[in-house]
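Dear support,

We are seeing what looks like truncated structure output for some complexes. This example has two components. We would appreciate it if you could run it in full and send us the complete token output so we can diff it against ours.
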Amino acid sequence: MLEIKNLQASVGDKPILKGITLSIKKGEVHAIMGPNGSGKSTLANVLAGREGYTVTGGEAHLDSKNLFDLTPEQRAGEGVFLAFQYPVEIPGVTNNYFMKSALNAVRKYRGQPELDAMDFLKLIKEKAKTVEMPEPMLSRFVNDGFSGGEKKRNEILQMAVLEPKLCILDETDSGLDIDALQIVSKGINALRSPERGFIVVTHYQRLLNYVKPDYVHVLSGGRIVKSGGKELALELEQKGYSWLEPAKAAV
Amino acid sequence: MANEAIKEIAGQDYKWGFNSVIESDVVPAGLNEDVIRMISAKKVEPEWLLEWRLKAYRHWLTMKEPHWANIHYAPIDYQAIRYYAAPKKKTSIKSMDEVDPEIRATFEKLGISLQEQERLSGIAVDAVLDSVSVATTFKDKLKEVGVIFCSFSEAVREHPELIRQYLGTVVPQKDNFYAALNSAVFTDGSFCYIPKGVRCPMELSTYFRINASETGQFERTLIVAEEGAYVSYLEGCTAPMRDENQLHAAVVELVALDNAQIKYSTIQNWYPGDKNGKGGIYNFVTKRGLCKGVNSKISWTQVETGSSITWKYPSCILKGDNSVGEFYSVALANNYQQADTGTKMIHVGKNTKSTIVSKGISAGHGQNSYRGMVKILQGATGARNYSQCDSLLMSETCGAHTFPNIEVNDTSAQMEHEATTSKISDDQLFYCKSRGLSAEDAVSMIVNGFCKQVFKELPMEFAVEAQKLLSVSLEGAVG
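Here is the complete output from our reference environment:
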């Protein structure tokens, strides 16, 4: 489904990703782990198309489409979804309105009929339950005054509404207490399906206790230095990352 | 990225720049007592009104154009302006069919076909094309409940006692330079009178449109709400493309007696000038409401997207005890537009309350200034004010300025003032785009969100129009 080949990207003049090759099939969950500054978030953002990152080499195909030929909104239409590490606040725009506009934009892109207000309301109420989001939060302004946990739940809710093919979770577990982590994980697991792939970017093993990955990759210095099954995450939890870092390994 | 998208979006042309061919009956350029006499004669006015005009003119001659506002423009040659223009084919019109087809076409282009309005929306439209009212609808229905809604000229003819009683009582002839000029040369406008205890059964709406080239517009509006009366009045305007600067100096006076309420909403979309700041309307307007009676309330809501220069401070004098004044404003300054706008809340009576919510949006090279005055007079015990001024910056070259003045002469007053300045961030834009929204829709959504507090004060159909207008004013071809 997603084929990343020798992806290189930089921020400004600084190369961050130095050749990432990764293949994700439908239904698989891939965890990307690694120390700070290893390029995890860069990978997530480059795939979603954030400005400020320059792809200097390689490619990424989602099914037949080269993502780097597409704008961020086209990628969303194709089924890429990035759950933000720091969800953005949009004062004055209600959550409901925002999600309805987004859903109808991607439906239009996908050649599906737009939902009217009634149908949307029905859909959103149902989806909100999966992340235990109380209905009044739907009428609040997007992420405005939300707690850290509420913001992350809101990301998962948007993911559920937009029904992406490829879900990219950028440190969704950061800043969550254990209760919030469980709710968010439950929401993510509910979205796992044979038709959908996941890239779960995380620092820590603890999210992976709830969202069980099929593969774990360790990113270090802009390269994948080790890949394995979910047991790799446990190993990392015990040993840390240093034994995998190329520079240190050479010393 | 945000900057580029916004730059493109903000580079939108004025969509309503068309010009209808209507024969005009114009007075030669220039201003002197003879011109004023001629205007008065053409309108068959009573002697007292001519004297009133001349008094204003003579005082105006002694006044200086104000320059304290944060706006810059070439000197205005008041002798180069023509002070009167009326569509020629006017006479008393009994039905829409008698309205000049050209004029009707103009309204249709504006999306306000009178027939549609008449049939569907239940809004009475007193259409001012240039300076003479062309058609007034729903008059009969209003008549049933005793509401008078007509052109100012007609009011002078039909209800001289009311005009004489209230004209100039809120904005005196000598109030300021532009008000004095307006008092001398005003050509038409609207008059609205709601009798005691009557709740006006429909929103009253007037669409203004400047039409004859080089013709200054000097509208005069007077609204009187008697004891316990209620009225919601809507004013909206668009204007055709013009190269010369056009001066628009209107005066609006509102009077609310005991327990009366007046809600006055404006959408202002005069021609803003081109991308380089050439042309556009000078909108130098004096709007003031007098909460004369106890428990009275006057509420101003304005959405100002047009004009090259705006100088406008819709104000409230809270004279009656427990009276309430409100000001909700969205002002957009794009390209080289300059807006210096705000309000004055003068607390005179006891337990008077005022609320100010101002949202300024600056894009391109636009300069947006909020200027406010909250004055609590001695003896206005228990007065309260809440002010909020938010600015949104959309380019590196625009500016937002805030000039709040607070003068408190009574120690029992409670004052609150909040102000913020923000930008549309790259993060906000990317967030929206990553959810499938185009940059254009994202900007429009974020800006409309910023203005929400003001839009919710507008009557429903006007709010929709305002959102559309704001989006159009900022939209463009975004890749």
